[in-house]
Amino acid sequence: MRLVLFTGKGGTGKSTLASAYALKLAEHERVLLVSLDPAHSLSEILGTPVGSGRFVTERLKAVELEPELEKRRFLERVKTVAKTVLSTDRYLKLLEKAVEGPGAYEVLALEALSRLLYENRNAFSAAVLDMAPSGHALLTLREAVRVSSFLKELIKLRGKLELLKRAGGLNPGSATELLSERAERLSFLETLLREGTVNLVSTPDALALSEARQSLKSLREEGFTVRTLYLNKALKPVKFEGLEVKVVPPLEEEPLGLGKLELLKPYL
């Protein structure tokens, strides 16, 4: 599986272009189109309810991730594990507060995304990610790398946990299993992100282009590969930091529904 990511300032049409790009890829391969944008719009763009997963063509499946569902699943799994090693009431109250705090959406979105991609790694040859607007997208990508690296270090403690089990009569087996499973999924996601490509989407106005330049700078500093700027609703290209610039002209009608998305494919 390979990843192609779309991000940009809100309102530039990144979700529309991500959908049209996925539709184009799906002419020849099985593709997973995933929205991580909190303001999901795939259902409207594709012209059919998407929700937790739906094939919109024979080879294209679209998914709108819901971190709230992942939060409930996460808390239930942690409760089960925590009961074996902790007095859970106080701990779980703190945990429930933590998953409502700053950055929680990005972490929970990573949990949901890593699970989805890992479970479908052999079913689809490509995944197109409709990321949140620029700032949130960068935070999500940073968290993917940070959490994956952190879990890899924790896995090294597995032997010590086993010693703890034998010495203190505790049973860390479930906690170790949970940790290992998360580490494997997030390591898989980190590899996909590092080997994947990011496409920036902007409109020709100065504010959107300025944000795209800042996003490009930050993404490059984090080591992500950015190859293309899609200049949406534009009539002519601009020079942009050495990237390939593809101009997507304005259409007479809003490209909603599979038929009208076809009109964008020649420009992608």
Task: Give an overview in words.
The chain has 268 residues and is an alpha/beta fold. It has one domain (2-267): Rossmann fold (3-Layer(aba) Sandwich). It has helices spanning 14-25, 42-46, 67-82, 88-98, 104-119, 134-155, 158-168, 173-195, 206-221, 258-261, and strands spanning 2-8, 31-35, 54-55, 60-64, 126-130, 197-202, 226-232, 244-248. α3 crosses α5, α5 (104-119) packs across α6 (134-155) and α6 crosses α8. The longest helix has 23 residues, at 173-195. It is globular. It starts with a strand and ends in a 7-residue tail after the last helix. The model has no long low-confidence stretch (mean pLDDT 80).
User: Termini, distance in Å?
Assistant: 20 Å
Biggest sheet architecture: 8 strands, mixed
The structure class reads alpha/beta
CATH topological fold name: Rossmann fold
Beta-strand percentage range: 15-25%
The helix content, as a percent range, equals 40-55%
Shape: globular
Radius of gyration: 21 Å
Keyphrases for this structure?
alpha/beta; Rossmann fold; 8-stranded mixed β-sheet; 10 helices; 16% strand
Brief account:
The protein is an alpha/beta fold and 268 residues long.
Explain the layout of strands and helices.
Layout: E1 2-8, H1 14-25, E2 31-35, H2 42-46, E3 54-55, E4 60-64, H3 67-82, H4 88-98, H5 104-119, E5 126-130, H6 134-155, H7 158-168, H8 173-195, E6 197-202, H9 206-221, E7 226-232, E8 244-248, H10 258-261
Parallel strand pairs: 1-5, 1-6, 2-4, 2-5, 6-7, 7-8
Antiparallel strand pairs: 3-4
Helix pairs in contact: 3-4, 3-5, 5-6, 5-8, 6-8
